Every structure is written in structure tokens, then in C-alpha cells.
């Protein structure tokens, strides 16, 4: 077979994916071959090294743009390396490193927050037994598989590859949600809910993909965009296809009214897993949305503009209002994640004008939210996390350091100047204005003002209330969780005070291939 | 109108950034040095502010020598979004120059005073750190070269004031007040943000020069929207109607805080914002009318409530609300009255800071009591405080030849000069406000310093130490003289910002207004003297409905509840209904005992997967249907 006819693979472009994928399999082998007591350090080192390696590979690809696979010089669009894809891959790997460190925290809960088998009947003898054991280390290869899926999701150039990536990132997450050592039943419930609804959403995706294939004769995103102008097929296929694909992606992104799973799953899942979902999955989901709408559906923008606008408004307002009454810090962060999905949708609707700013927002939000969940995992009533807000009263007096950190994170989420939350929102809204989306920006500002209230209530609670006599203890984090918090806060402040360097990067990386 | 352009900063003026850096540096040192700095930390605060004042004087001198009367400094690019670059730029022009002098000058005196006032407070170092932080943020606010920078300072002063009000964390009232201040300010900040985004959307810039030069091309609706949004922001920050209630509550903080933030500087930020945006406000008569109405309403509101309060700091707080009402009135009248508002602001900065610090000195002597019904006869015990307070009192009521006379009278005259019936209404309100001001300030003065002693048994009044009386004396001199000395030169000085001033002609001549005002003031003061020279009851008497209404802040709380609490509670209950979960009480109200119920609540997880799936399905149906509808049209 001559060189020109065979399949050519740009291995360098594929390297980030391959590194993480191979490391995930290696992690499985470690589980099989290494004695239990020594698995943890090896797994953590392997996962961090793989993710760091993938990040380096992403950076080395920086100026690349093109399809990874080609046959005889003709590009096959299944995996596309371009600016946004690389930036999002880099963001996912960075956030995943932080999340892995949080997964590895062993000091706050002895033996870790995870059990080995998700499906054991809660509170049965076997369950009680497994809770006594040290936490499972299978979580690391599972995480790496999910991260591979996410990285593939943001670089997938056709709907089919994207679907494979979607399943690949979802399945390990369903399992991870069910592994919490405390409150087993809620954890299992979360896993089951997430799985059932996720499967439901996947069905929408497949159906939508079929419709779009019927319309365009291809699942290639660029091809679908082309067909939007020139196809002779009834446009009905296009509309149903767009709607179905949008539903599936908006489900992952937690937009109203596809958001209902979010608070339950965020609360039930082990906190480090919640952090992974809130940060990395959010990036992946919006990476996918950005690519589908920019590359595949920009030619039919007029058709979907209104409905996506309605969804964005509902998400911004709904998420913010729901958040106001939350009493549980994890639920509060869940609803805030919904509202933030609304702001990010503005970036999707604004198409090319706001791609860079949306990516900036994703990176900024990811670091802040991961650190926030890390702090949540430190504040404990005995063995359990003290997630009820009333238990946080007066934390500033008992552990001022933790309270200062959490205050910074809350102010960032509330969008005050000098934090990444402000620069991210401001630049995203400013970009949306350039796409003439003044109405959405107004709703966004109002929504973020509403959303500021619950955050500030937490701040008030931390500093201005008297601690209860049996107030929760703040566990001193090990270097693992300590690094997570430090990295999150550092990113929050740096991106708030001097965001220029990252804004330059996203600016250069904001053009999708084939648009 | 002429093209507005700012000259690049040269020479000393290119060090304008140091004005902000000095207090910020002080704050950083105080916060980072920790307990080690407890002994000497406050002097770092005082020195940095003092240095900033010296620098401000130097810059002022340099600016006076320039032809263009402006210095513009681009520091670095903060955000770059597509074609839009937002710079960290500073503008030093006549308007920001007078604000800088006020902030650093009065701020320096208050800092010195606070060294004595906070001497026995364990958290003095932290207090000075926040104090410096506030000064830095306030300087960013007035020096910002575009709306973005102004907003950064705007939020910064909000945060610093929140920290400072809540400084005495153990007082629950202080905590609540801090929260109220912050929440009200957030509501108003939405106005600022929306104004900024509207500018970005229509003019594509938030630079002062760009916005002012482009403003003429805006449609009436847009300029109206921007103006009203900015007005909402200004009302929130400056405690103007309908956002007035947070300001008096904020007096729970330490007295120097009240003096600096809630009298001299931060609360005047709203006036600054309107004055800075004078081009936008001058474009649209409807916006101007709105500003005038807000100002007139608030000045009456504040002075009426001030008559009925018995807490020395609260009377001063309501008087601040009312005096800022005068400033709003002035900047709302537009034209030459812009400068009048600024001059009144400067004079007010002196006399109100002096009055607040004087009240702190009185509280110092009276074991931190604030009830004027339990004061009386203090003039003998604390002569310096008495004399300086008297200076502030004469200045605020505006008797010839003291400060207020030179600054308030022209505003009243300008109000009468408004065309048609509006002139009579607004001018009448301003005149009535002057009489009421004379009444409640005289009442405060007489009840505190004259008449029989009504002290509680455990107090032994004494004069405050020199470190506190020194600033009082300087501020008193400022109070007496500032108005007369500044009125004319400052108007000229501000001409490059507001344009040439024209002689104001209206319903009444200036002489007629002066006579009317003087009569009103003398009547108000004399009435208060007659009523209160023999003291007052030590408990409130049953009173007629106007007094009761005034004691209840004229229903301000009710408005507050209607405007903020009820909608948020409605939103809350809507959210509960949607969420299917029981919610009880407010977050803060939840006692630690509720902790146990969190587990119960979580065990009660009612969220059925089937209802979630139904939600997704119906969402999908709506999406498809909507797409069809859009398309078939």
C-alpha cells in the first residue's frame, strides 16, 4: 500500500488523547498487579504524570490546525485539532490534575471518600465491611477514561465521534457518583439518576444525529453546515436534528429545563467527583456546544437563535432564583453551576464573536469551583461533610484561614472586581455585545446580581455569626487538597488582577477550523 | 460642543498612580505584617495617607500650570475583547483633583484622629488596614480614566465599607447593617453595570472621552436609559431615595468610619458619578428632572427624619442623606449648578467630618452612649469639642458668613431659577429643607452641649486627648472658612470640566433668596433653641402622627420591605414550589440546631427520576415546537 493511499495519522496531534488513554489502561493493570497497600501513590503519580504529559503535548501542538486522520491526503473530520480544541483540551487536563489531587486526599477522611463497589446494597453487611476498608483506587483509571472522553469530545469533528466521546466521558462518571463512602444510599441514588437521565439524553442525541444525517448525508460537522445552505432535503430533518442534539448537549451542560439532575447528583456524589463534574465536564460540555453550533450549525443560526435565547434566559434566571433559597452548600454550588451555564450559553449564541471569552470563562470558573468544592470537603462534622450552611456559621472565628479562602471564592462566584469571576463575566458580556446580544447581557447582569445574594449570605454567615458550640471542625488538608485550594485561589486572583495573558491566548485560539 | 480630549500625563503627573499605590501599600504592609505590626501599624496608615496628600498637592500644582488642565495616564490593558481594549487608565483633571485633595486631606485628619479613638481597640491594626484599603479604592474611583476603572473603585469602596461597618463584629446590629449596606449597594451596582454595557453596546467604548464625544449621537431613548441607570447607581451609593435606609444603619461602625466613608467621601461618589457624566445628563432634560426630583425628595426626607431622631450619630447620618440631596439637586439642575454641587460637597466634607468626629469625641466622654436625651451641659467639660462642634453647626445651617452660606444658598437660588412651576416647587423644597436643617441641627447642638445635665450616673465626661482634638480644630477651621474661600475659585477651576458658567436668573434674585434663606434658618434655629434650651424628656413622649412617622424613618423600612424583601421572598417561595423542598427561615436565622435536620432533609430526597425525565422530554418538545414556529413564520 503506497503512502499516499494509506491512512495517515498525525500522531503528535493525537498524542494528548493517547497519553491519557494509555495511562488509564496502565492504571487498570496497576489495580491487577500491585498489592493494595501500594496502589495509591502509584495511581496518583501515574494519573498526574499522564495528565501533565498530555498538557505538554497540547502545548507543543499549539500552532497546529487540521484533521488528525487523513486518507491519501484527504482529511477525515473525526478528530480535529484547532485553536479552541487545543485550548479546551489544555484546560481540561489542568483542571483534571487538580481534581485528581482532590480525589487523592486521604487525611480528611481516613482511607479516602470512596468505596470499592458501588452496587452493594447500602447498609448491608457487605457494605458496612467495605466502608471499613481503605478507599478504592479504581477511581483514578476511571477518571482518566472520563478525561479521555472529555478531551475527545472537544476535538470531535463529526457527530459520531462526538457520541462515542460523550458515552466515554459519561459512563465512568455514573460509576464514580455511586462510590461515596458516607451516605451510601444518596450516592447510589445519584448515580442511578444520572445514569437513567444520561441514557435518556443520549437517546435524544442518537435520534438527532440520525435526523441530521438524513438531512445532510453526512455526520461531519462541516458537511452539515454546508448542507444547511445547499441541501435539497426537507428542512424538517434539520430542525428536529438540531433540537434533539441541542437537548442532549444542554443536558450535559445543565441548562434549564434539562438541569433537574444537577442538584441531586452534585449533592449525592462524593465531593471530589462533584468537583470534577462541575469543572471538567462543564468545560467539555460547552466545548462540544461551541463546536457543534459554530462549526455545524452556524449556517442555520437564524433558526435556532430564538429558542436558544429562551433557554439561556430561563437558565440564568432559574438557576439564580433557585440558588437563593438553598441551605446546603453543595446544592447552592449546583444551582450556581446552572446559572453559570446560562451565562456560558450567551457565549454559544454569540457564535464567533465570543468563542474566546467563553473559553476564558470556562477556565476561570473551573478553577474557582474546584477550589470551592475542595473547601467543602474540608469542613466536617466528625466523619461527614458539614454541607448544611447553618453549620458554617462563625467559621471565620474558628478557622480564619479557611474562611478567608472561601470568602475569596464566594466573591469570585459573585463576580466582584479583582477576581476571575468579574473579568470572565465582563469580557464575556462585552463580547456578546459585539454580537448585538444586549438583551441577553441585561438578563445576565440582573441574574448575576440575584446570584450574588446567596454567595454573600455565605460570607456573612462565615464572618458575622457566632459559631455553634458543636461547630464542625475544619480538617487540616494534606498537601493534596492543600494544593487544590491554593491552585484554585491563585488562579481566581491572577485571572482577576492580570487576566491579560490568558485573554491573549484565548483570543489567538478562538477560531474553529472549517467555520 | 467641543470635542473632549485629554492630554497625556507628563512630569510629576505621570506619577498619579502613586496616589493609589501609597495607601494600597500601607494596607498591604498592615495586613501582611500581622500581629508584629500591632505596635506601630497605625502610623504606617497615617504616613501613607499623609504622603498621598502631599503628592496630591504637588499634582494639583502641576495641573494648575497646564493649559489643557488634564492629564491622562494609560497604565496597562486589563481586558481585551475582540476589538475592544479596556485600559487601566487614570485621569487627573480639575474634578478628580478636588476629590483627591478632599479624600487624602480629610482622610489624613481622620486617620490621625482614629489613632487616638481606636487606641484601646484590640483590632486597631486591622482597622487601619481596611481604612487604607478604602482610601485606595476611593482614589481609584475618582481617578479612573474610564467607567470600568470607576466601577472597580466603586465596588472596592463598597467592599471596604462593608468590612469597616462590620468591624465590630460582635455587635449583631453592626453585622446586620453591614449586610444591608452591601445588599443595597449590589442592587444599585446593577444600574452601573447595565449603564456600562449599554455604552459598550451602543458606543463601543467606556472611555470617558469616547462616551462623552459620542453621546450626542445617541438616540433619546438610549441616553435616557444610560442616564437613569447611572442615577440608580448613584442613588444606591449615596443613600438617596429610595435607597436611603442603609446609610443611617451603617452608623453602627466605628465613628471615624462614619466620618470618612459615610460623610466625607464614599457617599459622595454618586455625586461624583453624575458630575463626571455631566455630558450625558445635560443631553436629556428628562434625566435631569429625575435627578432633581430625587435630590429634592431626599433632602426633605432626610431633614424631616433628622428632626425626630435621638441618637447623635443617626441625626448626623440623616443630615448627611439630606445634604447629599442638595448636591444631587445641584447636579440635576445642570449647567452652572454642577460646580455648585461640587463646592457644597467639598464644604460638606469638612463640616460633616468635623461633626462626626466631634460626636465621636462626645461618645468617648460619655461611655459610648449616643442618646442626646442623656447629654446636656457638656460645653463646660469639653470646651474644644464644643467649640469645634459649634463651628460645624454654624457651617451646616448656613448662617452668614460660614461655609454653608456660600455653598447652599446658590443651590437654593439655582433651584428657584428652574423654569415654570418646577422652580417654585423645587426651590420651595430646598428652602424648607434649610429651615428644617437649622431646626434639627440646633436641637442636636443644644441638647448635647447646653441645658441641664441629664447624664446617667456612671459617666464622667472629660475632654479627649490632643491627638483627637487636633484634627477637630483643623476641620473646624475648614468648616468655617472653606465655603467662603472656595466658592468662586473652585467654580473657575472646574470650568474645563463643566464648561462656562452663566449667571443664573430666575423667579427670585439672588438677594431675595439670601434673605429668605437667612430668615428660614434663623427661624428654624430659634424655634429649636426655645423648645430645647431647658432639655427634653428622657424617654420619648407620645406624639402626634407626623413625629411618629418621622421616628419610623417616614416609612422607609416599609418601602424597603416592599421593594426588596417582598420580591425576594416571593422569588424564594416560587423557588420552593418549583424545587419541591421545604425551606424555613433565612440562612442567618437558622440556628445550629437545624444542623441535625439537614440529614433528615437529605433522607427525604423527593426528586423522582420520572419527573426529571418528564421535564427533559417536555423541554425537548418545546424546543422542537419552537423551532417549527420560528421556521414556518
What are the SSEs and their pairings?
The complex is a heterodimer of chains A (515) and B (633).
Chain A: E1 7-9, H1 11-33, H2 36-60, E2 66-71, E3 74-81, H3 83-103, H4 125-132, H5 139-153, H6 159-177, H7 184-216, H8 221-230, H9 235-253, H10 261-268, H11 271-296, H12 301-324, H13 329-349, H14 355-378, E4 379-381, E5 384-385, H15 395-398, H16 400-414, H17 420-434, H18 438-464, E6 473-474, H19 479-497, H20 500-508
Antiparallel strand pairs in A: 1-2, 2-3, 4-5, 4-6
Helix pairs in contact in A: 1-2, 1-5, 2-3, 3-5, 3-11, 3-14, 3-19, 5-6, 5-11, 6-7, 6-11, 7-8, 7-9, 7-10, 8-11, 9-11, 10-11, 10-13, 11-13, 11-14, 12-13, 12-18, 13-14, 13-17, 13-18, 14-16, 14-17, 14-19, 14-20, 16-18, 16-19, 17-18, 17-19
Chain B: H1 17-33, H2 41-64, E1 71-81, E2 84-92, H3 94-117, H4 124-143, H5 147-165, H6 172-203, H7 208-214, H8 220-238, H9 246-249, H10 255-264, H11 269-276, H12 278-283, H13 285-308, H14 312-333, H15 337-365, H16 383-397, H17 403-416, H18 420-449, H19 466-493, H20 495-498, H21 510-532, H22 545-551, H23 556-579, H24 595-603, H25 609-632
Antiparallel strand pairs in B: 1-2
Helix pairs in contact in B: 1-2, 1-4, 2-3, 2-4, 3-4, 3-10, 3-15, 3-19, 4-5, 5-6, 6-8, 8-11, 8-13, 10-15, 11-14, 13-14, 13-18, 13-22, 14-15, 14-17, 14-18, 15-16, 15-17, 15-19, 16-18, 16-19, 17-18, 17-19, 17-21, 18-21
Amino acid at each position: 500500500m503506497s503512502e499516499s493511499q494509506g491512512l495517515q495519522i498525525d500522531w503528535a496531534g493525537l498524542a494528548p488523547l493517547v497519553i491519557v488513554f494509555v495511562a488509564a489502561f496502565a492504571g487498570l493493570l496497576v489495580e491487577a498487579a500491585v498489592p493494595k497497600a501500594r496502589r495509591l501513590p502509584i495511581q496518583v503519580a501515574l494519573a498526574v504524570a499522564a495528565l501533565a504529559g498530555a498538557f505538554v503535548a497540547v502545548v507543543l501542538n499549539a500552532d497546529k490546525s487540521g484533521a488528525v486522520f487523513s486518507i491519501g491526503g484527504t482529511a477525515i473530520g473525526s478528530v480535529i485539532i484547532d485553536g479552541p480544541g487545543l485550548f479546551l483540551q489544555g484546560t481540561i487536563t489542568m483542571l483534571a490534575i487538580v481534581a485528581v489531587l482532590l480525589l487523592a486526599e486521604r487525611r480528611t477522611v481516613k482511607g479516602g471518600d470512596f468505596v470499592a463497589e458501588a452496587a452493594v446494597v447500602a447498609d448491608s453487611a457487605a457494605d458496612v465491611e467495605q466502608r471499613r476498608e481503605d478507599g478504592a483506587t479504581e477511581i483514578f483509571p476511571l477518571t482518566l477514561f472520563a478525561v479521555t472522553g472529555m478531551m475527545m469530545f472537544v476535538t470531535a469533528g463529526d457527530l459520531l465521534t462526538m457520541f462515542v466521546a460523550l458515552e466515554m466521558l459519561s459512563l465512568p462518571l455514573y460509576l464514580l457518583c455511586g462510590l461515596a463512602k458516607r451516605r451510601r444510599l444518596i450516592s447510589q441514588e445519584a448515580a442511578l439518576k444520572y445514569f437513567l437521565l444520561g441514557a435518556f439524553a443520549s437517546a435524544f442525541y442518537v435520534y438527532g444525529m440520525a435526523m441530521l444525517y438524513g438531512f445532510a448525508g453526512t455526520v461531519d460537522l462541516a458537511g452539515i453546515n454546508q448542507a444547511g445552505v445547499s441541501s435539497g432535503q426537507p428542512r424538517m430533518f434539520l430542525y428536529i436534528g438540531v433540537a434533539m442534539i441541542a437537548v442532549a448537549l444542554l443536558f450535559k451542560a445543565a441548562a434549564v429545563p434539562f438541569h433537574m439532575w444537577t442538584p441531586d447528583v452534585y449533592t449525592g456524589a462524593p465531593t471530589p467527583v462533584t468537583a470534577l463534574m462541575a469543572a471538567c465536564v462543564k468545560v467539555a460540555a460547552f466545548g462540544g456546544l461551541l463546536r457543534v453550533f459554530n462549526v455545524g450549525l452556524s449556517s442555520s443560526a437564524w433558526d435556532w437563535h430564538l429558542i436558544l435565547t429562551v433557554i439561556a434566559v430561563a437558565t440564568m434566571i432559574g438557576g439564580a432564583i433557585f440558588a437563593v433559597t438553598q441551605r446546603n452548600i453543595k446544592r447552592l454550588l449546583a444551582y450556581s453551576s446552572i446559572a453559570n451555564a446560562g451565562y456560558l450559553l450567551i457565549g454559544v449564541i454569540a457564535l464567533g464573536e465570543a468563542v474566546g471569552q467563553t473559553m476564558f470563562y470556562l477556565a476561570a470558573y473551573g478553577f474557582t469551583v474546584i477550589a470551592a468544592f475542595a473547601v467543602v470537603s474540608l469542613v466536617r462534622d466528625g466523619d461527614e461533610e458539614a454541607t448544611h450552611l447553618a453549620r458554617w456559621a462563625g467559621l471565620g472565628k474558628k478557622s480564619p484561614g479557611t474562611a478567608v479562602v472561601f470568602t475569596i471564592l464566594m466573591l469570585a462566584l459573585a463576580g466582584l472586581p479583582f477576581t476571575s469571576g468579574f473579568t470572565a463575566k465582563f469580557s464575556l458580556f462585552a463580547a456578546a455585545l459585539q454580537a448585538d446580544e444586549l438583551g441577553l447581557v441585561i438578563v445576565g447582569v440582573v441574574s448575576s446580581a440575584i446570584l450574588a445574594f446567596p454567595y454573600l449570605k455565605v460570607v456573612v454567615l462565615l464572618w458575622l455569626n457566632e459559631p455553634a458550640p458543636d461547630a464542625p471542625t475544619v480538617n487540616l488538608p494534606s498537601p493534596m487538597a492543600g494544593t487544590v485550594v491554593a491552585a484554585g485561589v491563585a488562579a481566581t486572583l491572577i485571572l482577576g488582577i492580570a487576566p491579560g495573558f490568558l485573554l491573549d491566548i484565548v483570543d489567538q485560539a478562538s477560531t474553529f477550523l472549517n467555520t | 460642543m467641543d470635542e473632549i480630549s485629554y492630554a497625556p500625563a507628563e512630569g510629576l503627573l505621570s506619577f498619579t498612580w502613586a496616589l493609589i499605590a501609597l495607601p494600597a501599600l500601607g494596607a498591604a504592609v498592615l495586613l501582611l505584617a500581622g500581629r508584629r505590626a500591632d505596635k506601630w501599624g497605625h502610623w504606617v496608615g497615617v504616613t501613607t495617607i499623609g504622603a498621598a496628600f502631599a503628592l496630591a498637592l504637588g499634582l494639583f500644582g502641576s495641573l494648575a500650570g497646564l493649559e489643557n488642565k488634564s492629564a491622562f495616564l494609560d497604565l496597562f490593558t486589563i481586558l481585551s475583547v475582540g476589538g475592544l481594549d479596556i485600559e487601566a487608565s487614570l485621569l487627573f483633571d480639575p474634578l478628580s483633583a478636588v476629590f483627591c485633595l478632599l479624600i487624602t486631606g480629610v482622610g489624613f485628619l481622620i486617620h490621625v484622629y482614629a489613632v487616638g479613638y481606636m487606641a484601646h481597640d484590640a483590632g486597631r491594626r486591622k482597622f487601619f488596614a481596611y481604612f487604607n484599603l478604602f482610601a485606595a479604592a476611593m482614589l481609584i474611583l475618582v481617578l479612573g480614566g474610564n467607567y470600568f476603572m470607576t466601577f472597580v473603585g466603586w465596588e472596592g469602596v463598597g467592599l471596604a465599607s462593608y468590612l469597616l461597618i462590620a468591624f465590630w463584629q460582635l455587635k449583631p446590629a453592626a453585622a446586620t447593617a453591614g449586610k444591608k449596606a452591601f445588599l443595597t449597594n449590589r442592587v444599585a451596582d446593577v444600574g452601573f453595570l447595565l449603564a456600562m454595557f449599554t455604552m459598550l453596546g451602543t458606543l463601543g467604548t467606556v472611555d470617558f472621552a469616547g462616551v462623552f464625544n459620542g453621546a450626542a449621537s445617541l438616540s433619546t431613548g438610549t441616553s435616557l436609559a444610560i442616564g437613569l441607570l447611572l442615577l440608580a447607581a448613584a442613588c444606591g451609593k449615596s443613600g438617596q431615595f429610595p435607597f436611603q435606609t442603609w446609610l443611617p444603619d451603617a452608623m453602627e461602625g466605628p465613628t471615624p468610619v462614619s466620618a470618612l466613608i459615610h460623610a466625607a467621601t464614599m457617599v459622595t461618589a454618586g455625586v461624583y458619578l453624575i458630575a463626571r457624566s455631566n455630558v450625558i445628563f445635560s443631553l436629556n432634560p428628562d434625566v435631569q428632572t429625575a435627578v432633581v426630583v430625587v435630590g429634592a425628595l431626599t433632602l426633605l426626607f432626610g431633614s424631616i427624619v433628622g428632626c425626630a431622631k435621638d441618637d447623635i450619630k443617626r441625626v448626623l447620618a440623616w443630615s448627611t442623606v439630606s445634604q447629599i440631596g442638595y448636591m444631587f439637586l445641584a447636579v440635576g439642575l445642570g449647567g452652572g449648578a454642577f460646580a455648585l454641587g461640587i463646592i457644597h460637597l467639598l464644604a460638606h466634607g469638612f463640616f460633616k467630618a468635623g461633626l462626626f468626629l466631634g460626636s465621636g469625641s462626645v461618645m468617648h466622654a460619655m461611655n459610648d452612649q449616643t442618646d442626646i436625651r442623656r447629654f446636656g451641659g457638656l460645653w463646660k467639660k469639653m470646651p474644644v469639642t464644643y467649640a469645634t462642634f459649634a463651628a460645624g453647626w454654624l457651617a451646616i445651617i448656613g448662617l452668614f458668613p460660614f461655609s454653608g452660606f456660600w455653598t447652599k444658598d446658590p443651590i437654593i437660588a439655582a433651584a428657584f431659577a428652574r423654569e415654570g412651576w418646577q422652580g417654585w416647587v423645587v426651590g420651595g423644597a430646598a428652602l424648607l429643607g434649610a429651615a428644617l436643617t437649622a431646626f434639627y441641627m440646633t436641637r442636636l447642638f443644644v441638647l448635647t452641649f447646653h441645658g441641664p445635665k441629664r447624664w446617667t450616673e456612671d459617666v464622667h465626661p472629660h475632654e479627649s486627648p490632643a491627638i483627637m482634638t487636633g484634627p477637630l480644630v483643623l476641620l473646624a477651621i475648614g468648616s468655617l472658612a472653606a465655603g467662603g474661600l472656595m466658592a468662586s475659585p473652585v467654580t473657575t477651576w472646574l470650568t474645563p470640566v463643566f464648561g462656562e458658567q452663566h449667571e443664573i436668573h430666575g423667579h427670585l434674585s439672588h438677594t431675595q433668596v439670601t434673605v429668605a434663606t437667612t430668615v428660614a434658618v434663623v427661624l428654624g434655629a430659634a424655634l429649636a433653641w426655645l423648645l430645647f434650651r431647658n432639655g427634653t424628656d428622657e424617654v420619648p413622649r407620645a406624639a402626634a402622627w407626623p413625629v411618629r412617622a418621622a421616628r419610623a424613618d417616614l416609612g422607609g423600612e416599609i418601602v424597603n420591605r416592599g421593594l426588596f424583601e417582598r420580591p425576594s421572598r416571593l422569588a424564594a417561595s416560587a423557588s420552593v414550589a418549583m424545587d419541591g423542598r421545604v425551606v424555613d427561615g433565612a440562612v442567618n436565622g437558622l440556628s445550629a440546631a437545624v444542623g441535625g435536620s439537614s440529614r433528615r432533609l437529605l433522607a427525604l430526597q423527593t426528586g423522582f427520576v420520572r419527573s426529571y425525565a418528564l421535564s427533559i422530554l417536555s423541554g425537548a418538545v418545546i424546543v422542537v415546537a419552537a423551532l417549527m414556529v420560528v421556521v414556518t413564520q
